[in-house]
């Protein structure tokens, strides 16, 4: 008997009236993960498409592959560079030392393996902790366990620092799943991005472990400021003096959250999402336009006391989480605007807000995370005014 026959045979026990009816969401989760859902429209007038939820989420996960590869390499590279000065410590160093690979930053295998030993525990804890609460809510509320959590878990793992304690990783994703999504009804009904909600909770609940110069490279005693922190303190011109060139930032050879450092990796993911029409280009163009226009305005205004006023748009593009947020968070269809004009406005609002937070707010050199959450909150209002404007325009046309 094949696996498909096995699922068909036990399915009646999980359907309404079956002895395991309450566990149908768990059965449906496993069955739909292995096979394409059988519930599709079959007759007019319903539109039919081969793009289902599973395929959409699979495409998004595939788009993160370049970021995952860079996360592994850069995390290992930054760690191995720091080990050369401070020496190895911890169980990860013991494993690498036992395998005889060493800590040479010029050895890609040593860098990839060391990065994997940091990324994999964070991702496993994210999957287990968030998945358990996802299943609990689905079982109690009797709705499906959607594939959306696979995307949220991957994005969340990529936007936390490698030094984040695993118990905080678990707490953050639980908060993101429960408060950011499930309390509103689950996938497709949330107005906030769950991964960003969990990351924002960690930042404000545990700022000592999620910010500062000591959290980006997981070596005891090592401190190193991010490009945005250096720019906020001494101006972006100081980056070159500290060995951070624009190309280093673009390629991802700088400290930061594991998956956010490489603009090139994010760009490759964006090309894939645009080619498969999972991402909407209007949001991307709007966000870039808002960021470029407002940063250019601040460059023109200038400031004698705030060096961030002088940071040009092409540095904003490659520093912090702007590129990652632009590709994987701004384009998220559920929490963003849904009208075409609204998508331009929504993206422009986020682009404007990220520069304003980075430049005007001296206490918070990053800004993409809060800018996107701010945009999420205002997306329904943007759509409302766009729809009302369309209604008035059509009413005048037919008057």
Helices and strands in order:
Elements: H1 3-14, H2 24-34, H3 53-63, H4 65-86, H5 91-99, H6 108-141, H7 148-158, H8 166-180, H9 194-205, H10 207-210, H11 227-234, H12 238-241, H13 246-251, H14 263-275, H15 281-301, H16 313-318, H17 322-330, H18 340-360, H19 368-397
Descriptive key words:
399 residues; mainly alpha
Topology order in helix (H) and strand (E) letters: HHHHHHHHHHHHHHHHHHH
Rg computed from alpha carbons, rounded to a whole number of angstroms = 23 Å
Domains (count): 3
> Residue ranges: pLDDT <50 for 5 or more in a row?
43-47
Number of strands: 0
Identify the quaternary structure here.
single chain
What is the helix fraction of residues, given as a range? 55-70%
Number of helices: 19
Tertiary shape = globular
Beta-strand residue percentage: under 5%
**What is the overall pLDDT average?**
85
**Gap from first CA to last CA:** 67 Å
Structural class: mainly alpha
Described by strand count, sense and barrel closure, the largest sheet is:
none
EC number: 7.2.1.1
Main location: membrane
Membrane topology: Multi-pass membrane protein
InterPro entries: NqrB (IPR010966), NqrB/RnfD (IPR004338)
Describe the structure.
The chain is mostly helical. It folds into 3 domains: 3-7 and 9-37, no CATH class; 54-224, no CATH class; 277-399, no CATH class. Helix content is 65%, strand content 0%. The chain has 19 helices and no strands. The protein has helices at residues 3-14, 24-34, 53-63, 65-86, 91-99, 108-141, 148-158, 166-180, 194-205, 207-210, 227-234, 238-241, 246-251, 263-275, 281-301, 313-318, 322-330, 340-360, 368-397. It is globular. The termini are far apart. The relative contact order is 0.09. Residues 43-47 have low confidence and may be disordered.
